[in-house]
Design a protein that fits this description.
Elements: H1 3-20, H2 36-56, H3 58-67, H4 71-77
Helix pairs in contact: 1-2, 1-4, 2-3
């Protein structure tokens, strides 16, 4: 359940390092909880679609898994709603 917000916190840390070159601080991982609803919905829907893709065939599941890896960066960086 908390996978989505924690992943958004990690994406925030990566984007902060890329933009300003600053290292992570202790509270940075918690910034993913600022977009809790969008991150939670993205986690649930992407998990369901990846599982469905793996059920039918392995290749669609892998493609969806790689594609949905970047959804957390969109939620954090571009403030895209679910």
């Amino acid at each position: 359940m908390l996978n989505g917000p924690v992943m958004c916190g990690l994406c925030y840390i990566v984007l902060r390092k890329i933009r300003s070159g600053e290292g992570p601080e202790f509270n940075d991982i918690g910034k993913g909880f600022e977009v809790f609803i969008q991150a939670l919905l993205a986690c649930i829907v992407s998990g369901a679609l990846i599982s469905l893709g793996m059920l039918f065939c392995v290749i669609p599941g892998v493609v969806l898994g790689v594609g949905y890896t970047f959804v957390y960066f969109l939620v954090v960086d571009r403030q895209v709603d679910f």
